[in-house]
Each structure stands twice: as C-alpha cells, then as structure tokens.
Amino acid sequence: MSKTHIIIPARYKSTRLPAKPLLEIHGKPMILWTAEKAARATFADSVCVATDDARIAQVCEQAGVRTVMTDEQPSGTDRLAQAADILALADDDIVVNMQGDEPLVPPELLLQVRDLLVANPDCAMATLCEAIDNTEDFHKTSVVKVVKAGQQALYFSRAPIPHDRDNQSTPNQYAYRHLGLYAYRVRALKAFSAWQQGTLEQLESLEQLRMLENGERIAIDVASTTLPLGVDTPEDLARLNAMPLDEWLSF
C-alpha cells in the first residue's frame, strides 16, 4: 500500500526576503511553524524539511524536525525529487509539497490535494486553485493563473487568462488563481528531475509547466477552504507578527 509523505522545501536565498525560513514569527522561526502545521496532518506517514542550507537544517534538527539535505536546485519540485530519492520512497508513494513560507496552510487542504491525486490515477500530480474576484489580481504577474477543464489543468500563466475578448477589463467566471500546493507520485518526480527545463517553463518561470510540456496530466480542483497568504515580503512578515498570538494559534 502506498504511503503519503509531506516534504517542505526550504531555501535560504530569497531575492525579496533573504533567510526567509529562519525569520521569526512570534519568536519562532517560520520553518518550525510550518513543520508543526504539517505534523497536524494525521493522514501523512512522514514529514520532513528538504533544504540545501546547513543553517536551516540545524534549526530544524534541534527542534526535532526530520531534515534532508539536498543540492541547490532550480525549483522546489527538483528539490522534492532529490529528497524523495534520498529517502528511497517507493514509486507509488505520494509526496505532498507544503511551501515553507506558508505557515498557515490548513491541513484539510493538504488532505484535499492528496485525495485529488488518489482519485485521478491518470495524473502525475495534483494541485488546487481559487476563484479570482478582482481586476488587480487578475492582471498581477505575481498571481499565477490557471485555466482548467473540469478537474484537469490546461495551462498556467502569469498573464490574465483565459482572455474574454468581449470583456477585457474584469476577470471572468473562469479566472482562477493557482495555489502553490502540490501532490506528486514519486515516479513522476523522478521523471520530472530527468527532464530539461522547457521553453514555456523558462518563459513563465513556472515549474509545473514542465509536466505539461512533457505530456503529463495535472489534476486540479477548487480549494475547499481559503488558503491564507504566505510570506513573500517584509510587509507580509510584519502582518503575521502583528496578528495576536491566540488568533495565530487558532489557524
């Protein structure tokens, strides 16, 4: 029987927020908050952090969080692939990618993306999305959009898609924001790491396009609950630190 593993990729280098995983929220490094949230996902058989930085590894190991040291990788998915190899995970096992800078991810979303992959055996990976309801987000290049048909992702882009030629000023009912939460079959991760970065992946700077460029299918569904914003900027970090601790712990 296949097992499910939550792996949290964490890198020290960040253009907008250096040392991001180690920055503190209410006196605790962010990566530890994320690992604690992952541990609440009772469906998972294991949880670990995958990093290429000894400082992150030391903080995690001192807190009792299992850690895998990887090489520097071009994407989080490449890091997961190496971690899965180091951990000798079975081809049929499932890896859930929980971003290290999203410490408020509800465990129910981790379960949802895992179950979505299980329910779609023809897909190499699964992910989630949510409706876009404002024009600003629809046109922001930092907000990744996805076009889907049923539970299949057709394309991901930083551009405002799908394009409504008759109403270009506001997002349409088919506009969805992609959430950076993934579940993969280990065999798909192995294949992914062996492929070269494709043209579309490099143009958009979106690693999930490597799967589509190589003919793999991606299952997608609307998130069952809201995914709180992660930490990308100093302002994001300040916002989370300003949140009362009792409110923070209630997530």
From TrEMBL:
Record key words, sorted: Cytoplasm, Lipopolysaccharide biosynthesis, Nucleotidyltransferase, Transferase
Pfam families listed in its UniProt record: CTP_transf_3
One GO term (biological process): CMP-keto-3-deoxy-D-manno-octulosonic acid biosynthetic process
Signal peptide: none
Pathway(s) annotated for this protein in UniProt: Nucleotide-sugar biosynthesis; CMP-3-deoxy-D-manno-octulosonate biosynthesis; CMP-3-deoxy-D-manno-octulosonate from 3-deoxy-D-manno-octulosonate and CTP: step 1/1
Transmembrane segments annotated in the record for this chain: none
GO cellular component: cytosol; membrane
EC number: 2.7.7.38
Location in or out of the cell: Cytoplasm; Membrane
Reactions listed under catalytic activity: 3-deoxy-alpha-D-manno-oct-2-ulosonate + CTP = CMP-3-deoxy-beta-D-manno-octulosonate + diphosphate
GO-annotated molecular function: 3-deoxy-manno-octulosonate cytidylyltransferase activity
HAMAP family referenced in this protein's UniProt entry, alphabetically: KdsB (MF_00057)
Family: Belongs to the KdsB family.
Purpose: Activates KDO (a required 8-carbon sugar) for incorporation into bacterial lipopolysaccharide in Gram-negative bacteria.
Name of the protein this chain belongs to: 3-deoxy-manno-octulosonate cytidylyltransferase
